[in-house]
Amino acid sequence: MTTDGDTTVGALRQAVARFVDGREWWPFHTPKNLSMSIAIEAAELMERFQWLTAEEAQQASQVPAERSCIADELADVVIYCLSLSNALDLDVSSAVLGKLQINEHRYPADEFRGRFRRPERGKKV
Amino acid sequence: MTTDGDTTVGALRQAVARFVDGREWWPFHTPKNLSMSIAIEAAELMERFQWLTAEEAQQASQVPAERSCIADELADVVIYCLSLSNALDLDVSSAVLGKLQINEHRYPADEFRGRFRRPERGKKV
Amino acid sequence: MTTDGDTTVGALRQAVARFVDGREWWPFHTPKNLSMSIAIEAAELMERFQWLTAEEAQQASQVPAERSCIADELADVVIYCLSLSNALDLDVSSAVLGKLQINEHRYPADEFRGRFRRPERGKKV
Amino acid sequence: MTTDGDTTVGALRQAVARFVDGREWWPFHTPKNLSMSIAIEAAELMERFQWLTAEEAQQASQVPAERSCIADELADVVIYCLSLSNALDLDVSSAVLGKLQINEHRYPADEFRGRFRRPERGKKV
User: Fold this and answer.
1) Which pLDDT belongs to residue B2?
2) Which of B66, C47, C110, C123 is most buried per CB count within 10 Å?
């Protein structure tokens, strides 16, 4: 069984590429359409939590049937992200690690510990 | 340098977890909030293509400065997806490969080759 | 001063049309692009509440400066909705009242009072 | 029959309020949840155009059955916008007209005619 510990991003990208290739769906998989698709699937993921309080959402996420729905919707978002990276030949891993490095500087741990806004910008979280 | 070919999904998940840990942001990273965050970043990715024709979007995606913006926005979506998988302890790789398998059956290559709708449902693509 | 009590939907649609006309933006205001724009502005509205608890969001919505930001983002969503109705010559009022009538039947008050799911589907809200 | 020409925004807001009242759905209609709902419905509207080219989307929008689906999805977005304005007691008309006035200054007709970016920012549209 595959798990995140031994599956490369590249292996997932290839699985997505094979699926799209098999249906000759590349003409539909333009950057513009794929960005819409990512947003559409993101909305379906949100729908799982739309009317739940934060606590209810947390609880629902522990129920096996609901977990499996959430995993499915998350997979849809990730699949389209990988298809966009295939369409544009972008390396996801360097994009992610590069962005985390930028964020390290943008959100210094000392200033943002336990808060999502700088203290001086007002509102304690 | 890291690339998708030799980076596991698990390694990216750990990098994201370290970032969130370092700021003690877990209380904010509830499933509900993260689903909103994924959708918000997906919208920022769409914004790169909002007013462009399909062709202009394709061309823009080849310009280095624009490619780097797109990679950045894509990274934001993926980072929140990985944070959600961390928050819920969901295995992204099995979710993705499992969903592709479901889609193999839902969209048989023979019926959907070059079309995103079944022929009988009308409208040729 | 204009208020919702004495402003017709048509008057708002005309104000939006004049703005778009003045810039000759119709070629950009295709149905596809406008649907993206509505979603992008909806995400900016969500951003106001992204990291807030339900209670914090409610409180923030009473602070004048924040209220004004929220009103601005809501206006952006509505403006693009009105531009889409202009582009497609769709009557918003009949669409809204028609949909509410459908929903009256789909969500009978007796079964859905205080719940967003039918009782028999399980989960008490 | 109601039309945009003789329907006030306030009348639509009241129709939405009656619907929500009848089901005692106010506890669900928090600002945070409604912002998610607007985004979710916006995504369903986008879905109508997801895989279509700009031209196909335009054509589809003229087909009666498809027009009616689009009107329905647009109505869903607008209904949640009106419910948010009810929940926060925000005047939609002044928000919209106020924002258009801001945009008049932000996007001077002379500089933005036929373009969505300032000429000096490069890229001719």
Assistant:
1) 76
2) C47
